[in-house]
Amino acid sequence: MLRSVNAIYPNLQYLGLQVWNDLKLSPVCIQCVRWKRKPRWLPVAKSKLFRIPERPKIDESEDIELKRLHDRYRTEMRSVRNYFRQEFKETSANSLAALQGSKDEEEEHLRCMKENEEWNKQVALLREQRLTKIQEARKEIILAKIIAFEEREKEQLEKAEQMVREEKERAKFYITADNIDKAIEDALISPVDHNYAIDLEGHIFQGHKTKPTDVPPDKLEKVQVQGLVS
Amino acid sequence: MPNYEVALVLRTMSRPELISTLRRTADAIFNKGGIIRKVENLGTRNLPYKMSAHGSVHKQGSYFVFQFICPPSSLHNLEEEYGRDVDIVRRRIFKMETPEEFECTLHEEIKPPAYRKDVQKMIEESKKIDKYKFKYNSGLDYCPFQK
C-alpha cells in the first residue's frame, strides 16, 4: 500500500525538518501490507456468492481465423519436428555416416600413433647420443680425478718418505738420556743469541745488546736482497 | 711424532743446581717417550718484569730452549710437571712448524707504481672489461628519439 509521507509524518514541519518542502520532493513511503484486499481464508463475499461472470464473446469469424492459425502452427511444428527426428536418425551412432566417421577417426588415430612412434624413435636416438656423450665426458673427468688422486697420494707418500729419511739422518744427533749431560754442558758453555738489528745500509748487528761501535767496520755483514741494485 | 719446543725461564742458580734442573726437565721428556733434538742456552738476563712463581719474586732468569720430539698426548702432563717444578719460573710448549717458503719481492715493491708488474696487470685487466651497452634494436645507427 502506498501512502504519502505526510500521512505518516504530518507534523514534520513542526519538528523543524523542512527538508521535504525545501527539496520539493514528493517521495512515496512504501508500507508493507500482508494482504492486498482480504486474507486468503475469507470466503467469497455474500454479495458475490451467486454472481455468474459473463462469458467472453468472441467474434465468429475471428474464432475461425484463430483456429486456422493454430492448426497451421501445429502442422508446421510437427513437420519440423519430424524433419529433425529423421535427420538425427541418419546421423546417429548406428548410421552409415557415423560408422564411416568413426572408421576415419580410427584410421587417423592409427596414423597419429605411427607418426608419434617415429618421432619417439628419433628422439630416443638423439637422447642416446647425448647420454653417451655425457657419459664419456664424465668417464674422462673421473679418470682424470683418479689419476690426480693417485699422483697426490704418491706425492704425499714421497714426502712422508723424505721426512722419514731426513729424520733418520738426524737420528745420529739425537740427544738421549745417555748424552744429555754433555749436551747441557755444551749449552751452558756456549750461550746463543738470536737477536740482531739492521741499519739503513743493510748492515747486520748480531746480538741483543751489541752497539754499532762494537763491531769493526771490516767485519760488518750485509743483508742479501735479491735483485736490489745498491 | 711432531716437533715441539719448550721455552723455559729458570730462576738464577749456581751451576750445579742449574745442571741438575736441566737434567730434570730433560728426564721428564725422556720419561714420556720423547727425544731431545737440541738444547739452547739463551743466557741469563734481567726479566722484562717482576715475575712471581712458587711464592717468590724473580727479577732475573736463565733462558733455555729445548727442541724435542714427543707424543702429543703427553704434552699436557709435561707442561703440568714443569709447572710443579720450583726452579722453573715460566714455561711454554710450542709446536715447531717449518717456516713457509717465500720469494723476496722487495726489489719489485720498491719500484714506482707504473713500473710494477702487478699494477700493470691490474691496468690491463681493467681495460679488458667490456661494460654492458644498451642496444636499441631499431636497426638504426643513431637514436631516433630525444635522449
Question: Could you please describe the fold and organization of this structure?
Answer:
The complex is a heterodimer of chains A (230) and B (147). By secondary structure, chain A is mainly alpha-helical. Chain A is 55% helix and 7% strand. Chain A is built from 5 helices and 5 strands, in the order βααβαααβββ. In chain A, strand 3 and strand 4 form a beta hairpin. The two termini of chain A are 123 Å apart. Chain B has 147 residues and is an alpha+beta fold. In chain B, 29% of the residues lie in helices and 34% in strands. Chain B contains 4 helices and 4 strands, in the order βαββαβαα. In chain B, strands 2-3-1-4 form a 4-stranded antiparallel sheet, covered by helices on one side. The chains are: A mainly alpha (230), B alpha+beta (147). Chains A and B meet through helix 5 of A and helix 1, strand 2 and helix 3 of B. Chain B: Keywords: Ribonucleoprotein, Ribosomal protein. Chain B: GO terms for molecular function: small ribosomal subunit rRNA binding; structural constituent of ribosome. Chain B: InterPro entries: Ribosomal_bS6, Ribosomal_bS6_sf, Transl_elong_EF1B/ribsomal_bS6.
What is this structure's SSE topology?
The complex is a heterodimer of chains A (230) and B (147).
Chain A: E1 2-4, H1 5-8, H2 19-23, E2 28-30, H3 60-91, H4 96-170, H5 180-189, E3 196-198, E4 203-206, E5 221-222
Antiparallel strand pairs in A: 1-2, 3-4, 4-5
Chain B: E1 3-11, H1 15-31, E2 35-53, E3 56-69, H2 75-84, E4 88-95, H3 106-109, H4 117-128
Organism (chain A): Zootermopsis nevadensis (Dampwood termite)
Pfam family, one (chain A): MRP-S26
Coiled coil (chain A): 147-177
Structure class of chain A: mainly alpha
The percentage helix of chain A is: 40-55%
Mean pLDDT of chain B: 91
Radius of gyration of chain A: 62 Å
**CATH class category of the domain at 3-95 in chain B:** Alpha Beta
Q: Helix and strand string of chain A, N-terminal first? A: EHHEHHHEEE
Oligomer: heterodimer
* Average pLDDT figure of chain A: 85
Number of strands of chain A: 5
- CATH superfamily of the domain at 3-95 in chain B, called what? Ribosomal protein S6/Translation elongation factor EF1B
Largest interface: A-B, 25 and 25 residues
What is the CATH topology classification name of the domain at 3-95 in chain B?
Alpha-Beta Plaits
Instruction: Tell me the strand order in the biggest sheet of chain B.
Output: 2-3-1-4
Please state the second-level CATH architecture of the domain at 3-95 in chain B: 2-Layer Sandwich
Family (chain A): Belongs to the mitochondrion-specific ribosomal protein mS26 family.
Keywords (chain A): Coiled coil, Mitochondrion, Ribonucleoprotein, Ribosomal protein, Transit peptide
Organism (chain A): Zootermopsis nevadensis
InterPro entries (chain A): Ribosomal_mS26 (IPR026140)
